[in-house]
Give the backbone structure.
Amino acid sequence: MAVDRERVAAVVRDLLEAIGEDPERPGLKQTPQRVAEAYAEFFSGVGEDAGAPLERTISVSRGPAPGTLPSGAVMLRDIRFRSMCEHHLLPFAGYAHIAYLPGEQVVGLGALPRVVDILAARPQVQERLGEQIADTIAGSIDTRGVLVVLDASHQCVTMRGGRQPDASTVTIAARGELSEPAARAEIVALLTGHA
């Protein structure tokens, strides 16, 4: 489902009037269209299949390195993401760190950031975003376990209310063998750079 840019622009124009501004003044005249274009980008993941990037898998036993079966986790750290908090429609941004224990399949590493991008490009809360990433990976490829750590700064915390500019929020979502805290401790340390 594509964002209705004309409708967003009309709502932004109404919003500007509602806060006492003149949407016809030079600095604001193009704002409704600019916000509509930005929202089309920010919410491009609505309705998109987050599992699609994981459709092309590589067989571990019959793939490019058949004699090399991974004995541990495949990890990708520092995947930059940004999303919009569904409570205030303010941005939050940070890093996703992903690990999975492969079964018979692995995916190209570029597929994991694409999953994050699709799921983050929706009205979100960080806790659900991590759970959705973990569910998508666990449900799309053969894994023995999945771990997703998100570390993000939320503008609803940094710019309003308590105004804590240095605060960040860390969430963890785990599936399979990595659901047990003892099993994931080493991986969390490696993913977050605290090993």
